[in-house]
Amino acid sequence: MIGGLFIYNHKGEVLISRVYRDDIGRNAVDAFRVNVIHARQQVRSPVTNIARTSFFHVKRSNIWLAAVTKQNVNAAMVFEFLYKMCDVMTAYFGKISEENIKNNFVLIYELLDEILDFGYPQNSETGALKTFITQQGIKGQVKTKEEQSQITSQVTGQIGWRREGIKYRRNELFLDVLESVNLLMSPQGQVLSAHVSGRVVMKSYLSGMPECKFGMNDKIVIDKQGKGGASDDPGKSDLGGGSGKQSIAIDDCTFHQCVRLSKFDSERSISFIPPDGEYELMRYRTTKDIILPFRVIPLVREVGRTKLEVKVVIKSNFKPSLLAQKIEVRIPTPLNTSGVQVICMKGKAKYKASENAIVWKIKRMAGMKESQISAEIELLPTNDKKKWARPPISMNFEVPFAPSGLKVRYLKVFESKLNYSDHDVIKWVRYIGRSGIYETRC
Amino acid sequence: MPAVSKGDGMRGLAVFISDIRNCKSKEAEIKRINKELANIRSKFKGDKALDGYSKKKYVCKLLFIFLLGHDIDFGHMEAVNLLSSNKYTEKQIGYLFISVLVNSNSELIRLINNAIKNDLSSRNPTFMCLALHCIANVGSREMAEAFASEIPRILVAGDTMDSVKQSAALCLLRLYKTSPDLVLMGEWTSRVVHLLNDQHMGVVTAAISLITCLSQKNPDEFKTCVSLAVSRLSRIVSSASTDLQDYTYYFVPAPWLSCKLLRLLQCYPPPEDGAVKGRLVECLETILNKAQEPPKSKKVQHSNAKNAILFEAISLIIHYDSEPNLLVRACNQLGQFLQHRETNLRYLALESMCTLASSEFSHEAVKTHIETVINALKTERDVSVRQRAADLLYAMCDRSNAKQIVAEMLSYLETADYSIREEMVLKVAILAEKYAIDYSWYVDTILNLIRIAGDYVSEEVWYRVIQIVINRDDVQGYAAKTVFEALQAPACHENMVKVGGYILGEFGNLIAGDPRSSPLVQFNLLHSKFHLCSVPTRALLLSAYIKFINLFPETKATIQEVLRCDSQIRNSDVELQQRAVEYLKLSSIASTDVLATVLEEMPPFPERESSILAKLKKKKGPGAVSVTELEDSKREGGELNGGGDRGPDTAAMAASNTSTPSPSADLLGIRSAAPVGAAPSSAGSLLVDVFSEAGPTAPSAAVNDDGFLRDLEQPTETSDSLLVEGSGDLDSAPPSEDPAPPLSEADELLNKFVCKNNGVLFENQLLQIGIKSEYRQNLGRMYLFYGNKTSVQFASFTTTVSCPGELQSQLNVQTKPVEPLVEGGAQIQQVLNIECLSDFSEAPLLNIKFRYGGALQNLTLKLPVTINKFFQPTEMSSHDFFQRWKQLSQPQQEAQKIFKANHSMDTEVLKAKLLGLGTALLDNVDPNPENYVCAGVIQTKSQQVGCLLRLEPNAQAQMYRLTLRCSKDSVSRRLCELLAQQF
């Protein structure tokens, strides 16, 4: 159970302090500041134990959020709550910054009262919260009794995430598959570790209380159907850029609370009544048969003690018709670099002294192409005999397909009470693959 | 930042620093620093040479980055280049960088030293000062090696500027402190002393720090400084406050210099020259007079400076301890401070008075302030001042005011701070013992002490009460009565129960006549406390009960009942159970005569230093309790206990017989009271050891009452010495002749240690050397304990271990150097690591040199390292033994000797000796059971030598035949020689 929640700015000044339980004293605020924010050595662990009190913190830009407890809580729950808290705040007033927090502190206290009760997390669904915690003045907020009872029944009812009586002229659905691909590769091109963590984010503007069903190329489902011989709706067209494989193996997944888990467990079908607006339907992780969008081939040569020659080739490895964007390659330089000359064929490259790295940026790059950069690094002889540790070359990019190979097969909407059918709903599907930690040793 | 003139200000640096300060987060700061570092690297890398200004700027930036906590691994070269610049600011930054960031990098150090050398030989005073400051700031050994000879030259050169002289003196002081061995005394020393006459006060102030430090090490060479210092002091003291202009601080002329002069004088005894002495006394009087004058300023700095000089003067007076007039005046002056508003002054006054109290001239004067001090103890708010007040009360206590002071301390104890309670308790206990005329008063006081602060009364305190009560017949009855009354309180401290149990057990009969304290009442009273006590106390009470049975046969039934009950006889604690069972049997089987013998009254304890005093000394560290006090207590203690004449060696002698203390335990009696934890094991093995040397007379004495013995034996060694004395003569009569013993005696000493590993190696009037050693295979470790038996410190104490002749290749002895100073009454320890490379016959030599009161003492001893120490016992059957015996049948392998017995031919003693030799004693091997057969392997690094031994005693002729067969002939001969001395 969370005993209290504090928000600090980068200097360690307390912006928001809310204590839920008696076992957390006022000195806990200072303890965290002294031992974590102002700690002489940077604190890397997100959980810190100070005098039998646990502090769980997350950092958003310059803002620290810390949940405090004296009890043995489920740490994953606390972090889930903190992330949710960040989401809610973002949904209410945009970017989490010192200024925004100061301007909205009444709202934040109101939210904290609602989403945590005596330290137990409550409904933190933005859509639901927005119905009764608004940013309007008190005057404009006068609601009819009917409205109030409706809110009450919704918040306390079975489907707390959606209110009744929503109406749209155009029933629309946006579905984004967002993936981040993580890689560690040896200089020889051997994959040391790779995994994709993905999210399915939906934005739904549907009338009434629709029942939705979501299907994708999950290996288990496909195999089952293959045996049954019955072929379902083929769903959306194939947008994937990779190989022609039909199904993927999902290692683990988690769902939004609206998904009926019993049905998923028994039939492995994902059916749900969606919340209104934007939400994250599911999260998943895959480790097998990942399509690596880029291959980095490094070549580092030390010429004497004062010179280093670096050549890096990147190869794009997807359909030529697709375009990767926002490509950035970061080549670390030794700590005693005194000068750098860079030549690259495509994009722009620059030595950034403040980050001890050469940063090479390419705006766009089509599939099945390759590009290269070469750099001459001059070194200053130092007293230190320590050898340069050669940190890995890292890379950032964005590609319009899912590196895991996930494909959306269908998304069906049923609304029995209102007079629109699955075909009347306009559906949009988008795939975005981004780089997570995408590194190649050199 | 350095003071920079306009136009020389480093704008880039200022911008950089303000950038860093404006950084919002740590990451931003690191980014900014990385950028700056890259910029500096590219600048330093650049092919075109940088001008001095930018070099200085970048080096400065690097320094700043380093001070922020980042590693700097370049720029050293540029900094060194700056050193050769001609501009002050550039040079200064260069030196700053070097002194902060220098590491003993060989190539750079040479360049740096070169630059420093150039600056030192330049005629520019500022450059010389910079170089000197750098040397002092770095102060490393390398620096000392390079410049230790140069600096004295600068210091005494006639044409050196004053400011440079100042720096040189302080620089030399610093080098001397870090590596005294490199700063060699030479002809310059006498000229340094004459710096005291320098015109420039700054030079004098700097020089005096150096002289003070040097004269502490070599007082003789700097003797001449005394008269110079006195004349300087008198000039300052007598000068008007305006004379010294720059050196007058809030109307006080040169206070720092005065303090330092006074402190320098404290290194020396009072000057012998009458004129000088007269002048000094005059100075001190003037200082004391000045303290009486009304202050010239209300500022606190003025009074601080004045008081600093005054306190320094008073400590000089105390140090001289020869001018009664001055001592009394100082005491009166301090008396005024006792009631001063300023807490610090009160503290200092109390502290100085403590030392004054120990002087015979001012003791009476101090005593007049008793009321004020007692008041301070009661009302003072600051705990440290209260502590000092308690110390002072302790110091000023004597026979005349003991009762008052002890009463005050006792009453204060009830409210005293917890941190000082234990010390207070010890002090009360000591004072009560030391100044007791009336023993009933003593007993009352201590019992009161236990009542008030039972938790803080350490074991030593109540042991001492019992020792005194047992040794004094006249107080026993009173003690029994008082204890009995004290025990009647519904809740009394466990220590009280212990004292009660012991005293009633011994002397309960003295009060048994009174029906209110009849034997049964006494027993019931004691037993009512039994169940609330800890195990050791219960054990003591059980012993008291069995004594009751002896004292009062009428209580026998009741006590047997108690002993027989399940909670005693089946107690889960082994000790209690054993006592219950044994006492029960003893009481039911033995006749009254036997009981009376076994449970006889405890014999008086031998005289010894008060264990409490030792404890207090240990608490405060050696030297805290003054020597006079120690001697005082010996004198008083002797009187108190009527123990007659007590030679100073008794305690040490008793201790010299304790053969197996743990390494941490003191070997010397001078600081007795071994730690409790170490005692039980040593006590156990001690019995064995004593038996093995003293023969079979000891055991019967030991049976006497081992329960009682054990109770007292643990921390105080009382019973050890009891046993030892009971068992009659013992080997080591301390040789007390010339401190340079001939080697023949050393041989004798060596023989003592053939069969044992621990004990006293050597002792004379000055020094006692104890040994504890242990051996494993071919390795050994020896602890040498050097005890200073005098009250004067030994100076330049050195020990060397040498291996003469071919022993060098046979034995490897490593020593660690010992402290050069051994305080009076203190003991130091030295560890030797010994490795046996091959078999040897000689013993290594231990040479000890030290100065005792100026005279050099020099003695050489043989270290008791003999070949048999490296024995590894080997068990074997009779068959094996004879098979091997036959294998070693070559004539040179055997050594045989027939000799007359030197000691008694007791079986147990012989066995113990043979085991002490390190071999395995084999039973049932020799057909004649009278004979002894041993086997062992001598482990050396190069080889192992198997040895078989056969000893055939002939009781009628008092002769032995010793036969040795070893796989190496030299070993058999040597062993035979060694062993022949032992039986």
UniProtKB/TrEMBL annotation, chain A:
It comes from the Eukaryota. Gene3D superfamilies: 3.30.450.60, Mu homology domain, subdomain B. CDD domains: AP-2_Mu2_Cterm, AP2_Mu_N. A 1,2-diacyl-sn-glycero-3-phospho-(1D-myo-inositol-3,4,5-trisphosphate) binds at residues 348, 350, 352, 361, 363. It is a peripheral membrane protein. Keywords: Cell membrane, Coated pit, Endocytosis, Lipid-binding, Membrane, Protein transport, Transport. Residues 225-244 are annotated as: Disordered. Residues 170-441 form the MHD domain. It is found in: Cell membrane; Membrane, Coated pit. Its main location: membrane. SUPFAM superfamilies: Second domain of Mu2 adaptin subunit (ap50) of ap2 adaptor, SNARE-like. One of its GO terms (biological process) is endocytosis. PROSITE patterns: CLAT_ADAPTOR_M_1, CLAT_ADAPTOR_M_2, MHD. InterPro entries: Adaptor_comp_med_subunit, AP2_Mu_C_sf, AP2_Mu_N, AP_mu_sigma_su, Clathrin_mu, Clathrin_mu_CS, Longin-like_dom_sf, MHD. GO terms for molecular function: lipid binding. GO terms for cellular component: clathrin adaptor complex; clathrin-coated pit; plasma membrane. Belongs to the adaptor complexes medium subunit family. Adaptor protein complex 2 (AP-2) is a heterotetramer composed of two large adaptins (alpha-type subunit and beta-type subunit), a medium adaptin (mu-type subunit) and a small adaptin (sigma-type subunit). Component of the adaptor complexes which link clathrin to receptors in coated vesicles. Clathrin-associated protein complexes are believed to interact with the cytoplasmic tails of membrane proteins, leading to their selection and concentration. AP50 is a subunit of the plasma membrane adaptor. The complex binds polyphosphoinositide-containing lipids. This is MHD domain-containing protein. The lineage of its organism: Eukaryota, Metazoa, Chordata, Craniata, Vertebrata.
From TrEMBL, chain B:
GO terms for cellular component: AP-2 adaptor complex. It is found in: Cell membrane; Membrane, Coated pit. Residues 751-864 form the Clathrin adaptor alpha/beta/gamma-adaptin appendage Ig-like subdomain domain. Transmembrane segments: none annotated. One of its GO terms (biological process) is intracellular protein transport. A 1,2-diacyl-sn-glycero-3-phospho-(1D-myo-inositol-3,4,5-trisphosphate) binds at residues 11-12, 43, 53, 57-61. It is a peripheral membrane protein. Keywords: Cell membrane, Coated pit, Endocytosis, Membrane, Protein transport, Transport. Component of the adaptor protein complex 2 (AP-2). Adaptor protein complexes function in protein transport via transport vesicles in different membrane traffic pathways. Adaptor protein complexes are vesicle coat components and appear to be involved in cargo selection and vesicle formation. AP-2 is involved in clathrin-dependent endocytosis in which cargo proteins are incorporated into vesicles surrounded by clathrin (clathrin-coated vesicles, CCVs) which are destined for fusion with the early endosome. This is AP-2 complex subunit alpha. It comes from Monopterus albus (Swamp eel). The lineage of its organism: Eukaryota, Metazoa, Chordata, Craniata, Vertebrata.
